[in-house]
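Milestone M4 deliverable, item 7.
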Amino acid sequence: MPRVVSGEFRGAILLAPKGDNTRPTTDKVKEALFSIIQTRIAGADVLDLFSGTGGIGIEAVSRGANSAVMVEKDGRAVSVIRKNLEKIHAEKDDRFTVLKTNHLAALESLYEEGRRFDVIFLDPPYRIAHRSLCEIGEFLGEKNVLKEGGIIIAEHSSELPFDTDVINLQFNRSCSYGLTMLTFFSKG
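Output delivered:
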């Protein structure tokens, strides 16, 4: 079971949807991710696309992020995210927003609301990770929801092809953790 690794909600065990439609980010990868971006989290606005359990958004706020918007289109996963917020007694905490929609509709809606983010994290099903990142890069070329100096992080498989040349995004670095990779971009 995934857990909150550090901060305000440290140690909370999070639920995960049954079945293999959702693949929560492992604690090892989550620890590595937040170690890399630790100086960016305090006071940050975080967008967690393909949120699954809500673990990345919850971890970000636990470590001092100002807000986390968690986007998930699967109704069962949205239900789990809400239960996880209840588990940490944050179901009415205005630092968290849960959107039941797909990533592009969420980006459009957030753009129209004037929301901007310091960190955008996406963890789509591995088979569509590159395509999803390209769609987000294209969106950011037209309508920016990333703050100046913000970063985009894609979690994807180290075993599947993943081209780091993405329209409107500048590759920064990749880190491998077994079968999982984290690839970091900034606005190109």
